[in-house]
Amino acid sequence: MNEPSPCDVLIRGRIITMDTNRRVLSDGWVAVTDGAIVGVGTGPAPYQPRETWGGDDHLVMPGLVNTHTHLVQGCIRSMAEGTRFQERLFGFYYPMTGACDEERSYWSAMTPTLDLLRSGVTTTTDDHFTHANKRSMDGVLRALTDAGIRARAARLLVNDPLAVPEELREDIETALSETDRLAAAYDSETMSVTASTIGITYVSESDLRALYKWTLDNDKQFDIHAPSMMDGAYLKDVRGWSGGSFEWLHAEGMLDKHVIGIHAQNIRQGEAELLARAGASVSLVPDMELILGMVTFDSRQYLDAGVTVGLGLDGPVVSYGHNFWLGMRSYLMAQRIGDSARKLVRGDKGHFGDELLFGSAEEALELGTIGGARALGLGDRIGSLEVGKEADLLVIDLSTEPTAAPEGALLANLVWSGGPAPDSIDRVVVRGRTVMRRGQPVQVDLKEAVRRANEVQLELFQETGCDSFLRRGSTWQWS
Prior knowledge:
The chain is α/β, with parallel strands linked by helices. The protein has helices at residues 85-98, 102-118, 136-147, 172-186, 205-217, 231-237, 245-251, 271-278, 286-291, 300-305, 324-346, 361-375, 410-416, 446-464, and strands at residues 5-16, 24-33, 36-42, 47-62, 64-66, 121-128, 150-157, 191-197, 222-226, 259-263, 281-284, 308-311, 393-397, 425-430, 433-437, 440-441.
């Protein structure tokens, strides 16, 4: 008999591999050494581990991948309630996030980052575009690093006079110089810094080309909100383009495998196929769509065209909580609502109970793990539990999770209930290292993070006067 091979950790339980065959191993194990998966199987494991995690009543699955958010918005979490888009953008978003220096950005970003980790997100993105203080994004990157989450962070340039106040505008030389500085300081095995802008109409054409070229030269991702709020009128009135946003990017030679389109709703016929041919990916943000009452959400066009699709949560100002399980549930709900709305517009009759509704918990989990990993260009490293991939995973204790019982429809239980409670997630693991245990971060003091986030918001209210936007829709008497 062969001697068992040594490994750092052996994780036992029901294994959701998310591999090509979507195997679920009832009596399974995953072996990890030096942060990488060295074995996956069932029954007796041919390994001698230094540690053993999990057990018969545990579920082991790939870590969740959030493909979009704005973490500095932690300081304005949920303040969108009772406000209109332009009112909140110029009324408190720009003033409050623009007043964040490195330290304030650190604590503003820390609470939504811990939110993500507590729900089992092991990889997140971040889009940062308020640079009145050039060290503001340093604070966000430090928070991500200290929390232990994997991240792809984009430094966004915005300088169009119609899109951003003068004090927040930058020139392209400053933007690229600062991106170079951040990439040199923070790029690592679990962090990648890139350049971009919010949307194609938030900067000049020449600046957009320079940002795109930087991503090509550095083999990084080009993260673009498309179509963005301004595109409809701006592209036609200012740039003389009557087509769609992705059509414009394609016509200008800026649509390829480096591009990930954010939100990507209300596109023109044929644009999904255009993205598929270009090898671009999209990040759908259904949680925000539902919160803002949008009924046009449509993922089918991308899935049918073969586009790589991931899911994102947007920033805390409009995606108030950062529980990614709710984002996966929102994906299914938003598509079903969108399908119903489109039927009504067409004059179709309503539901009679004999039709199958869109999607499944399995599909939502695919987009929330391997789909998101591929959308970020990380599909060869994370997103599934396979030999050779990095050990980004969750260990869930089903014995303490009532929403998972009875477990005949286990995955539907978890997705539709909003996921396991944080204290039922025994471990959140990034590259083989435990960063969260039963709702408690390993590397950060949770109570201090909450306390400091509250202090930062109060400081910003005092400086900006933006507390006038709080509770705009409330009829309660607050004292």
